[in-house]
Design a protein that fits this description.
Blueprint (H helix, E strand, L loop, with lengths): L1 H5 L3 H21 L41 E3 L9 H5 L5 E7 L15 E9 L8 H5 L5 E3 L14 E3 L5 H32 L1
Antiparallel strand pairs: 1-4, 2-3, 3-5
The site of one iron/sulfur cluster (SF4) has 15 residues, from helix 3.
Length: 200
């Protein structure tokens, strides 16, 4: 009986009320704490500041690690269109179309000779599983995973990223130049063979 009185008396009610309000006030105060940028190597990276339940995204965001694997980017000026990335991709989300250049098209920034144009260089980020394999085989390091992770789209077609630097007209022109060059080479070869036969 005494025990019941102890937990229902006026003093106990006031004490509980004060203690409950104190707890609420502490949470209320702590909820104003904001997260400061920290690197994944820091001890507190995965700890939320006391009382903080949500972030004011996009005004606040948890920093991503430097070696995180997020949206792909191809620095097309440095791409030699070797197709290695497309070949190794386990989900076939890289589509490349190449056209042999008929003229000197220069070098990449690491001094690799460029011989091919890429009328199509598409990466479907909706299919990508972010394994990073394509970036590891890229011989010129032009294909990289960026820290960009917030790129949701309403239309899934917009998840296909186009990296070609050629317009459709320019691509068509390159194809025609190559076809013309191949015709000329075939004609020259046939003429040389005919001349050799005549001599023989
Ligand atoms: S990260 Fe993996 S799945 Fe995505 S494009 Fe590269 S190889 Fe393909
Ligand atoms: S592996 Fe690199 S250089 Fe080769 S096609 Fe892919 S992005 Fe271009």
């Amino acid at each position: 009986m005494n025990e019941v009185k102890k937990h229902t008396g006026f003093g106990y009610v006031v004490k509980s009320l004060v203690s409950g309000l104190g707890l609420t006030w502490r949470h209320f105060k702590n909820a104003r704490n904001r997260r400061t940028p920290e690197y994944v190597s820091d001890e507190n990276y995965f700890k939320q500041p006391d009382g903080m339940a949500t972030l004011k995204y996009p005004y606040e965001a948890i920093p991503v690690p430097d070696n995180g694997r997020y949206r792909l980017h191809n620095e097309i000026d440095d791409c030699i269109v070797c197709d290695l990335c497309a070949k190794i991709c386990p989900v076939n989300c890289i589509t490349i179309e190449s056209v042999k250049a008929t003229e000197d098209i220069g070098m990449t920034s690491d001094g690799t000779k460029k011989r091919l144009y890429a009328p199509v260089f598409d990466i479907d980020m909706a299919k990508c599983c972010y394994c990073g394999l394509c970036t590891t085989v890229c011989p010129t390091d032009c294909l990289t995973m960026t820290p960009v992770y917030d790129f949701a789209e309403v239309n899934i077609k917009n998840m296909v990223y186009h990296f070609t630097d050629l317009t459709p007209e320019q691509a068509e022109e390159k194809k025609q130049l190559l076809a013309k060059q191949q015709e000329e080479m075939a004609a020259a070869k046939a003429a040389a063979l005919a001349a050799r036969k005549q001599q023989g």
